[in-house]
Design goal:
The chain has 378 residues and is an alpha/beta fold. The chain has a domain at 174-265: D-Amino Acid Oxidase, Chain A, domain 2, CATH 3.30.9.30. The protein is 30% helix and 27% strand. It is built from 9 helices and 18 strands. The chain has helices at residues 12-21, 50-57, 105-114, 161-167, 235-244, 294-310, 316-342, 347-360, 364-375, and strands at 3-8, 27-33, 45-48, 69-70, 74-78, 84-89, 101-104, 121-123, 127-133, 136-141, 146-149, 151-154, 174-186, 198-203, 206-212, 218-226, 259-265, 277-279. The structure holds flavin-adenine dinucleotide. Flavin-adenine dinucleotide binds at residues 8-14, 32-35, 39, 46-47, 126, 155-157, 161-162, 180, 222, 263, 281-283, 289, 292-296, 298. The site of flavin-adenine dinucleotide has 33 residues, from α1, β2, β3, α4 and α6.
């Protein structure tokens, strides 16, 4: 008999897991989304490392329109005065069929929704309660409808209201200590960085990442600035005092509309008290964005969970939780080290960092362990 599976939240994580399951005839799939339609967050770019692209290829990502994504071959490191320090060869992590990829989030969401039967997604749905009935889970929604399922996947993002409701505890992420500022750049004549690759500019208490998001010359800019939490932020003033004050030549990067938000991270992942309920993507764990692994790990974990469920794995909850925990530890260690070293201010420390960076970036052994373990392993 078919197993009933419900997914709550249709972001990158929820849509990926749904796409993986949609051709598995052993499962009957339903998706529930709080919003009235899928949130595209137009303009916002993401980087996908080869680990996640290899998963997306299983659901035909390789058929995506050629000019709607980019395959950067290098990550260039710059110091605060725009001087290039060194570059990392990203192609060493690629395989013929899956490469380091950058694109708009909206392009990825459009792709993920294409093959899903729209009547599988119910919009305007929020979970009110989940209760166990024998081996199954009964989901009650706010609009007084319900669904009885064998498995429940919760992928409703970083603030995961559903997690707090289901587990009957208030589980909240914590402020990471940084603000993220985002903008879209149309390539200008005098653009001082590499237009065809990823540029990382390391400043005092901040860093900027710029990368192409398609083959039409559009670039995504994300700037992470250490900042005390405040509800009222004048983003233009912040850029002026924290970024332009360090390098006047960066002013041109911030001419377009600037969007900003506080960056949150998860304190620790939560193992559900229900054996057949799983948290996925940011609802499971949210990383600081200094390894650009949030979406990639969401995709990777969707594949992990899909395999475990499809193979009817024994002790499923523990196996999934432990696998994820190991990966989180790996990514987290590197994210924290990156966060610290990207933002150094002491000139001696900056000099030492740059020296070590140039040295390590040439070491195959170091690259295999620091990045290969994440970019190439699922
Ligand atoms: C500054 C910044 C830069 C980043 N850059 C990168 C990058 O370059 N590469 C990368 O891999 N990752 C990046 N990330 C992280 C990445 O965007 C996220 O990790 C990823 O989008 C998480 O996907 P998700 O599906 O888990 O959650 P979300 O995308 O948040 O989706 C959650 C979905 O659930 C819905 N929902 C919410 N509440 C409910 C509810 N109660 N009931 C039902 N539905 C609900 C929402 O409407 C939404 O559709 C970045 C993050 C930040 C902050």
């Amino acid at each position: 008999m078919k197993k009933k599976l419900a997914v709550i939240g249709c972001g990158i994580a929820g849509l990926t897991v749904a796409n993986l399951f949609k051709n598995n005839s052993n499962f009957d799939l339903k998706l529930y989304e709080r919003k009235k339609e899928l949130s595209l967050e137009e303009g916002y770019g993401i980087q996908l490392s080869p680990n996640s692209v290899s998963v997306l290829n299983k659901i035909n990502f390789s058929n995506i329109q050629n000019n709607s994504f980019f395959n950067p071959s290098k990550l260039n490191f710059y110091s605060s005065d725009n001087k290039k320090i060194c570059d990392l060869n990203l192609e060493r992590f690629n395989k013929n069929s899956y490469k380091y990829t950058t694109l708009k989030r909206s392009t990825l969401i459009e792709f993920l929704k294409t093959d899903l039967f729209y009547n599988n997604i119910k919009f305007g749905k929020e979970v009110k309660r989940v209760s166990k009935i024998k081996e199954k889970l009964l989901i009650n929604f706010n609009d007084n409808t319900n669904d009885l399922v064998d498995y429940l996947i919760i992928s409703d993002g970083i603030f995961s209201k559903t997690k707090s409701i289901v587990e009957s505890v208030n589980i909240q992420p914590v402020y990471s200590g940084s603000i993220a500022v985002r903008s879209l750049i149309k390539v200008q004549e005098d653009f001082p960085f590499d237009k065809k690759n990823i540029s990382l500019i390391m400043l005092k208490n901040a860093h900027i990442v710029i990368y192409p998001i398609n083959k039409k010359g559009e670039l995504n800019l994300v700037c992470i600035i250490r900042q005390k939490f405040s509800k009222k932020i004048d983003v233009n003033l912040l850029i002026k005092t924290e970024i332009i004050s360090q390098n006047k030549n960066l002013e041109n990067l911030f001419n377009n509309y600037l969007e900003f938000w506080p960056v949150y991270e998860t304190k620790k992942p939560y193992r559900s008290t229900y054996e057949n309920l799983f948290y996925l993507g940011d609802a499971f764990y949210t990383f600081t964005p200094t390894m650009a692994q949030g979406a990639s790990q969401s995709i990777e974990s969707a594949y992990e969970l899909f395999n475990l469920l499809s193979n009817d794995t024994k002790d499923l909850q523990n196996v999934y939780f432990q696998k994820r925990l190991n990966k989180i530890r790996l990514v987290n260690k590197r994210s924290r080290l990156n966060y610290y070293s990207f933002h150094l201010s002491n000139p001696l420390m900056v000099k030492t960092r740059n020296f070590l960076l140039k040295k390590f970036i040439k070491s195959e052994k170091f690259l295999d362990s620091y990045l290969g373990n994440i970019y190439q392993t699922i």
